[in-house]
Backbone:
């Protein structure tokens, strides 16, 4: 930064070409830098850290940027819409020169505000130059019903007029809103339908004609802004809508989605969840990760949960953090050297799950906790099938059928739990499909063994009480044969005959 030109004269003699700064607008800058990235590394380099959109969303965003479009990301909550919009700053130059002190970050070679033009006329080549980083050129506003035109575009400030002795219609009396302050950058509006209709009208001129008007005064600012939006499809009917003329001016409408596969979901959760902590070493079993992710997948398909609201990817992220915390708490209490989550820790993470589910009527009748437990059980059953389909576990089931019982609390030390689990015939011999052997730590063996028991319980082959006592499953009663009526019995009244 210290080597960058600090006056207009120095800027003219530097590598910041006057012709380039005069003619190159923000959308051209985004396009040029995107083209360079595509040539260097292809689509994968555009949004690093965005998982699952390589073949769907990312190509559409690339097309929108190459087309110099304003665009909107349309999708349910928790689909990385805001993250993608903020990542657009990677396509901006690292430093952008502007006239120091200018509220709208005026181009030194083509100022649009009156104050900057007067300063250049007065100072000439000594006009001071400042710089904005790429991140500073991104302005974001969450749309709410109380947003006003003054917030977005600006207003006349009578105090400025009084102190400076200016006419109210003078540009020098304007207090600029967020949109002019985003000049030569990216302006993002989240949840666009929540913006009042008359405020959406205020965006027309800037999108089509490239200028704004303040309070009806003849003040025009030909702003240079890339406009991007996000919205939830639910909002079109539930809380508001994007008015048709504004929607017509948005160049591209891009639909986002939830992870298509469990593997993609696991990758997102592993990237976002806070699991690298400054405590005990963490060993996170694959089957625990799969169960947590499948809870979200099961919730998105469950009829008791509102599909229009969606099930955010924040659910498995928050659940993962709670699962690790519960395992960490057990390790601290029992002075264990390694943190290994168990399936019981997933049940302990219910508070991170239930708050993210919008229930339908049937779900509300059963209660969020009941629905959450059903989802976990379904996720365990599906994950168990991935590892143990076709495996012979009859010896384990038979041990319970003969009266065996075992209690596994989520707080019991691993060494104590393992001694009890070894009493179950054939259990520790079945840990192989999970990649666990008897040479592994007690924490890992207990976690794997508990997963097998929970899988058998999920498939109703063994039972489990609320106190986490595993026992024999309920025997299905034999089919009761329907009693046939004897000829002299009359089980119902004979119908009357009508002529």
Residues:
């Amino acid at each position: 930064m210290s080597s960058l030109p600090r006056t207009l004269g120095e800027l003219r003699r530097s590598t910041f070409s006057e012709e380039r700064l005069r003619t190159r607008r923000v959308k051209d800058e985004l396009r040029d830098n995107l083209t360079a990235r595509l040539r260097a590394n292809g689509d994968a380099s555009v949004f690093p850290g965005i998982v699952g959109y390589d073949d769907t969303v990312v190509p559409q965003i690339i097309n929108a940027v190459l087309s110099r479009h304003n665009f909107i990301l349309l999708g349910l909550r928790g689909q990385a819409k805001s993250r993608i919009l903020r990542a657009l700053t990677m396509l901006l130059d690292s430093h952008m020169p502007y006239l120091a002190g200018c509220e709208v970050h005026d181009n030194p070679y083509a100022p649009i505000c009156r104050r900057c033009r007067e300063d250049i006329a007065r100072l000439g080549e000594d006009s001071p130059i400042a710089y904005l980083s790429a991140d500073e050129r991104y302005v974001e506003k969450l749309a709410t019903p109380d947003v006003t035109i003054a917030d977005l575009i600006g207003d006349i400030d009578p105090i400025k007029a009084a102190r400076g002795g200016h006419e109210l219609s003078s540009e020098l009396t304007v207090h600029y809103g967020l949109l002019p302050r985003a000049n030569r950058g990216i302006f993002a509006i989240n949840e666009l339908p929540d913006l009042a209709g008359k405020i959406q009208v205020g965006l027309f001129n800037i999108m089509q004609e490239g200028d704004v008007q303040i309070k009806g005064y003849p003040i025009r600012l030909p702003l240079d802004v890339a406009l991007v939006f996000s919205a939830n499809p639910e909002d079109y009917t539930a809380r508001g809508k994007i008015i048709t003329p504004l929607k017509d001016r948005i160049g591209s409408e891009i639909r986002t989605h939830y992870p298509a596969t469990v593997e993609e979901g696991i990758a997102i959760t592993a990237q976002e969840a806070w699991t690298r902590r400054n405590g005990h070493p963490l060993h996170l079993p694959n089957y625990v990760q799969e169960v947590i992710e499948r809870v979200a997948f099961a919730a998105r398909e469950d009829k008791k949960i509102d599909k229009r609201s969606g099930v955010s990817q924040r659910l498995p992220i928050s659940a993962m953090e709670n699962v690790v915390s519960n395992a960490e708490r057990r390790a601290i209490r029992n002075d264990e050297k390694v943190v290994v989550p168990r399936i019981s820790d997933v049940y302990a993470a219910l508070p991170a799950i239930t708050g993210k589910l919008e229930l339908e009527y049937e779900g509300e009748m059963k209660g969020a906790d009941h629905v959450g437990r059903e989802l976990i059980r379904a996720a365990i059953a599906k994950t168990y099938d991935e590892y143990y389909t076709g495996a012979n576990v009859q010896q384990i089931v038979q041990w319970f059928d003969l009266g065996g019982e075992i209690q596994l609390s989520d707080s019991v030390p691993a060494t104590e739990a393992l001694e009890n689990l070894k009493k179950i015939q054939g259990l520790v011999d079945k840990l192989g499909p999970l990649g666990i052997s008897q040479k592994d730590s007690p924490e890992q063996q207990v976690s794997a063994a508990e997963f097998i028991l929970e899988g058998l319980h999920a498939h109703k082959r063994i039972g489990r009480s609320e106190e986490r006592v595993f026992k024999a499953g309920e025997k299905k009663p034999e089919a009761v044969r329907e009693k046939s009526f004897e000829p002299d019995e009359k089980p119902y009244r004979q119908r009357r005959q009508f002529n």
